[in-house]
Amino acid sequence: MAYVALSEAEKTFILHGVEEDYRCDGRSRRDYRPMELETGLVSNASGSARLRLANTDILVGVKTEIDVPHQLTPEFGKLEFFVDCSANATPEFEGRGGSDLAQELILSLKNAYESPFAFDYRSLCLIPGQQCWKLYIDILILECGGNLYDAVSLAAKAALFNTKLPRVTATLLDAGITDLIISDNPYDCTRIGIETVPLLVTVCKIGDFCLVDPSAEEEACSTVSMVVAVSQRNNEAFLSGTHMTGGGSMHRDTMLNCLQLGLSIGDYLDKLLVKMLKQEQERVGPKRPKIVGFLK
Amino acid sequence: MLRGTQTKNNLLDGGTIAEQLYATPKDCEDIFDSIEKPSALIATPRPTFIRSGVLTTVRGSAYMEYGNTKVLAIVAPPHELMRASARRVNMGVLNCYVNFAAFATGELESAPERERHLGSMLTKALEPVVCRNELLNFQLDIRVLILDDDGCLLSTAINCCGVALVECGISTYDIIAASTACIYRDHVFVNPDAKVEELLWQHRGGNALVGATADTTSTPPVVREHGLLVTASMDTFEQIAQCQQCGYLKPATYARLLDCTLEINKSLRELIKNTIRARVKEQYALDLREQAESAQEDERLKTVIESLKQQGLDEFIQSNIKEDPYTKR
C-alpha cells in the first residue's frame, strides 16, 4: 500500500482511539466513511462507475468483446480484470511501482469472481460453444486513501450493474455457421444480474480489536487484515474467497470473529449498494442527460 | 456439436500423448466417477519426507516429498535492498519466487500465472513467521522449485520453506506448518491430489450448477458448495499465519475445513520438528568429527615440529627423503 509517514505517538493515538471505539474521524469500529458513487460516466465504455470512499478514488470501466468460450465451459462467458495504479495516486506508483499492488488486487478479484455461483457466467453466453461475451473490467486507482479492496469491489459491482450489453440476434447460415447481428438501437440492450456478485470486505486488526474500512493511517498501524469476499445468494451469505494480508498472524477465534464481522458488514453493504444503484437508475432514467465530468 | 480439437504430441517412437485430459464437460464427470471418494474425514498428513541441507551451493535448502508432490526450496542469506522506496518500511522485505520444473506440469500456458499466484501467496504466508524486524534494510529471497505436482502445492511449499529458513539460520518466531483441504460435491477431500484439484479448478466448467441446465432457469439451482482452503499455522501460540480460501463456501463449512487443516498441521509440525532436530544432531556429529580430524592433524604437525627442532633442518630433510628406486647414486 501507499506509504504514510506516522510517528510512534500518532500510532499510539490511533490505537487508543480504536480501543475506545471512537476512531480519529469520529467513526465507530463498524462504520464506513462516506461514499460517493456515480455510474455511466465513461461514454466509451459499456458500463462504468466511479467511487469515492473518502480519499480513495476508483474509476471502473467495463468493455465488452465477443469471444469464443473455453471448450470446457461452452455455456460460460469470460471476465478479465485489469487494475492500473495511476501515478496520480502516489508518486510511488510511477513506472512499474504499482504493479505489485495491482497484481494483488487482480488476484483477489479473480479469486472472488471465480465461482459460477458468485458470478453468473451463463448470462454472458450468446451461442453455447461458439460465441460469448468477454467483459474487460478495467479498474483505475486515481487516489489511494486506504481500504482499496473494498472500494475496488464496490466500484466493480456498480460498473457491472451499469453495463449494457447490446442485444444480439443470431442467424443460422449453411454448414452450422452462425452469424451475429447486433441491434442498431443503442437503447436495446440487456443487463447483467448482480445479485450474487461478491463484495470484498477488509477486516483490519489494530491492537486487540477488529474494524472495517481502515483509512491509510489506520492501515499503517494494523498488524494483519483479512479480506473476506461475501456473496449473497438466496438471502444467505457465502464466502467466495478469503485471504489474510499485512504480514501478521492471528488466533483461530479472532479469525472467525473477523469473518463474522466481514459477513455482516458485507451483507449490509450489499443491500445498501443495490438500493442506491436502483435509486440512481430511477432518477437518471434510461437516457443520461449530459455528462459533465467526474473531476470536481 | 462441440468437439474440442484434440492436439496430440507425437513421440519419436510413434507413441502419442494426449495433451488435454479434459476435452468436454462429460470427461469431468468420468474423472469424478473414477476417483476414490473418502468415506470419513481423516485428518492426517500424507506420507511425508523432508530433508534439509540438500544442496551445498546455498546456505539453506530443503527438499520435501508430500505424497507424490516434490518440492525443493532454497533460501539465500539476506542481502541489502536495492530499491530505495522499500527502505522506508521498517521491516525486511521477503521475496518468494516459485518455478515449475519444465517436466512438472502438463499445461505450460497457465504455468507463469500459477507461478506468480503461488509466489505471492507464499510471500504472504511466510511474512508472519520470519523475524523481519531483524532484517531491516535487507531483503530475503526464497526460491521454490516444483519438481512434481500432485496437489497441495502451496502448503507443501510453505512447509518446505519453513525448514529451509531454519537451515539457513534465519530467525523465525515459530515453526510453520501448512495443509490443504477441499470440498467438492459434498465430499471433503483432505490433502487433495492433482486430479481433485484439477476437477475443482474445472468445476466452474459447467458442473457447478448441477441440474441447472437451460430449462430449469425458473427454479433457483441448488447451491453445491465447492472450495479449497489452505491454512498455515504456527502452533506455539495457536496463530494462523495464512488462510487462503477459494470457491464458494458457507461460513460453517469454512470453519469445519479450517479445523480439519489445523489438525493436520499439528502432526506435520511434529514431523518438521523431528526433521530439524535430526538435522541439528547430524550437524553436531559432523562438527565433532571435524574437530577430531583437525585435532589429529594438529597432533601430526606437532610431532613434525618437534623432530625438526631436535634434528636441525638438514638432517630433517635428509631423513624425509625417500630413496628413489630408479636413480642410483
UniProtKB/TrEMBL annotation, chain A:
<protein>
    <recommendedName>
        <fullName>Ribosomal RNA-processing protein 42</fullName>
    </recommendedName>
</protein>
<keyword id="KW-0269">Exonuclease</keyword>
<dbReference type="InterPro" id="IPR001247">
    <property type="entry name" value="ExoRNase_PH_dom1"/>
</dbReference>
<dbReference type="GO" id="GO:0016075">
    <property type="term" value="P:rRNA catabolic process"/>
</dbReference>
<dbReference type="GO" id="GO:0000177">
    <property type="term" value="C:cytoplasmic exosome (RNase complex)"/>
</dbReference>
<dbReference type="InterPro" id="IPR015847">
    <property type="entry name" value="ExoRNase_PH_dom2"/>
</dbReference>
<dbReference type="GO" id="GO:0000467">
    <property type="term" value="P:exonucleolytic trimming to generate mature 3'-end of 5.8S rRNA from tricistronic rRNA transcript (SSU-rRNA, 5.8S rRNA, LSU-rRNA)"/>
</dbReference>
<dbReference type="GO" id="GO:0004527">
    <property type="term" value="F:exonuclease activity"/>
</dbReference>
<dbReference type="GO" id="GO:0071035">
    <property type="term" value="P:nuclear polyadenylation-dependent rRNA catabolic process"/>
</dbReference>
<dbReference type="GO" id="GO:0034473">
    <property type="term" value="P:U1 snRNA 3'-end processing"/>
</dbReference>
<dbReference type="GO" id="GO:0034476">
    <property type="term" value="P:U5 snRNA 3'-end processing"/>
</dbReference>
<dbReference type="GO" id="GO:0071038">
    <property type="term" value="P:TRAMP-dependent tRNA surveillance pathway"/>
</dbReference>
<keyword id="KW-0540">Nuclease</keyword>
<dbReference type="GO" id="GO:0035925">
    <property type="term" value="F:mRNA 3'-UTR AU-rich region binding"/>
</dbReference>
<dbReference type="Pfam" id="PF01138">
    <property type="entry name" value="RNase_PH"/>
</dbReference>
<dbReference type="GO" id="GO:0000176">
    <property type="term" value="C:nuclear exosome (RNase complex)"/>
</dbReference>
<dbReference type="InterPro" id="IPR050590">
    <property type="entry name" value="Exosome_comp_Rrp42_subfam"/>
</dbReference>
<keyword id="KW-0963">Cytoplasm</keyword>
<feature type="domain" description="Exoribonuclease phosphorolytic">
    <location>
        <begin position="32"/>
        <end position="166"/>
    </location>
</feature>
<dbReference type="InterPro" id="IPR036345">
    <property type="entry name" value="ExoRNase_PH_dom2_sf"/>
</dbReference>
<dbReference type="GO" id="GO:0034475">
    <property type="term" value="P:U4 snRNA 3'-end processing"/>
</dbReference>
<keyword id="KW-0378">Hydrolase</keyword>
TrEMBL record, chain B:
<dbReference type="GO" id="GO:0071028">
    <property type="term" value="P:nuclear mRNA surveillance"/>
</dbReference>
<dbReference type="GO" id="GO:0071051">
    <property type="term" value="P:poly(A)-dependent snoRNA 3'-end processing"/>
</dbReference>
<feature type="domain" description="Exoribonuclease phosphorolytic">
    <location>
        <begin position="46"/>
        <end position="170"/>
    </location>
</feature>
<keyword id="KW-0271">Exosome</keyword>
<dbReference type="GO" id="GO:0000176">
    <property type="term" value="C:nuclear exosome (RNase complex)"/>
</dbReference>
<protein>
    <submittedName>
        <fullName>Exosome complex component MTR3</fullName>
    </submittedName>
</protein>
<keyword id="KW-0963">Cytoplasm</keyword>
<dbReference type="InterPro" id="IPR050080">
    <property type="entry name" value="RNase_PH"/>
</dbReference>
<dbReference type="GO" id="GO:0006364">
    <property type="term" value="P:rRNA processing"/>
</dbReference>
<dbReference type="GO" id="GO:0016075">
    <property type="term" value="P:rRNA catabolic process"/>
</dbReference>
<dbReference type="InterPro" id="IPR020568">
    <property type="entry name" value="Ribosomal_Su5_D2-typ_SF"/>
</dbReference>
<keyword id="KW-0539">Nucleus</keyword>
<dbReference type="GO" id="GO:0003723">
    <property type="term" value="F:RNA binding"/>
</dbReference>
<keyword id="KW-0698">rRNA processing</keyword>
<dbReference type="GO" id="GO:0000177">
    <property type="term" value="C:cytoplasmic exosome (RNase complex)"/>
</dbReference>
<dbReference type="GO" id="GO:0005730">
    <property type="term" value="C:nucleolus"/>
</dbReference>
<dbReference type="InterPro" id="IPR001247">
    <property type="entry name" value="ExoRNase_PH_dom1"/>
</dbReference>
<dbReference type="Pfam" id="PF01138">
    <property type="entry name" value="RNase_PH"/>
</dbReference>
<keyword id="KW-0694">RNA-binding</keyword>
<dbReference type="InterPro" id="IPR027408">
    <property type="entry name" value="PNPase/RNase_PH_dom_sf"/>
</dbReference>
<dbReference type="GO" id="GO:0034475">
    <property type="term" value="P:U4 snRNA 3'-end processing"/>
</dbReference>
<comment type="similarity">
    <text>Belongs to the RNase PH family.</text>
</comment>
